[in-house]
Amino acid sequence: MNFLSLLTVTGLTVCALADPGFTEGSEAYPLFNADNTTSHEVTATPARYKGRDGLKITVDPDHGSLPEGGCDNCTYLAIDGIDFGDGMIEVEVAGRPGPDASRANRGFVGIVFRADTDAESFEGVYLRPANATAPQQIRRNHTVQYFSFPDYPWMRLREESPGHYESFAPVVTGAWTRLRIEVKGHGMKLFTDGSAIPALVVNDLKHGADKRGTIGLFTEPETEAYFRNLVVTHADRNV
């Protein structure tokens, strides 16, 4: 990738890209703290994990006991000021079950995108790292999961379209994993650790091609999730 210019302002790196189709540049968020973010039922704290600095995110203990009953699948830290439609999201993540997690916990960690500021609707994709090394192939096939809030949780997608919205990826529980998510129109591709072959391809994002919104760092209850080095590249769909 060739860069025309590089500008750093108050910890935010903005890169103007020479690549065709990337006309608005890249925004880099080191995620050393939770400044300029909005929490949706999660707590974010600076942490050094496996020798790397980033953010540790856990779901609030009172999740599900709020007056409205909590919000399944909308537990994430939103990055303020992002208006993302098409483009690329790159981030390093690590997920592992928390100390008091049930046996069903898989270390859920992922990204939501095109999210409304009030968390009423968004697209999302996440890892279940513990499934990648399961002794049963069917569980391995559930390592990567796409979902769309609020109408298409993972269970509905699995029941109505088995195998279409989840797949295997060679990830390790608790280890840092590099994710690259490419979004264009109705489609999304997720790549892990620099692979040229996507681990998951979705051709029918449920909120349609024109939805825009912010990006968030997603996890689920009983999980310790870690994030660092978020880079958001905006794309021009017409190029």
Shape: globular
DSSP helix fraction = under 10%
Mean residue pLDDT: 88
The main pleated sheet reads as: 10 strands, antiparallel
Characterization of the model:
- This protein has 239 residues and is mainly beta.
- 5% of the residues lie in helices and 48% in strands.
- It contains 2 helices and 17 strands.
- The strands form 2 sheets. Strands 1, 2, 3, 5, 6, 8, 13, 14, 15 and 17 form a 10-stranded antiparallel β-sheet that branches. A 7-stranded antiparallel β-sheet has the order 4-7-16-9-10-11-12.
- A hairpin with a 2-residue loop joins β13 and β14 (187-192).
- The longest helix has 7 residues, at 154-160.
- It is globular and about 45 Å long.
- Mean pLDDT is 88; it is low at 1-23 and 66-70.
What are the key terms here?
mainly beta, 239 residues, single chain, ten-stranded antiparallel beta sheet, disordered N terminus, 17 strands, 2 helices, seven-stranded antiparallel beta sheet, 48% strand
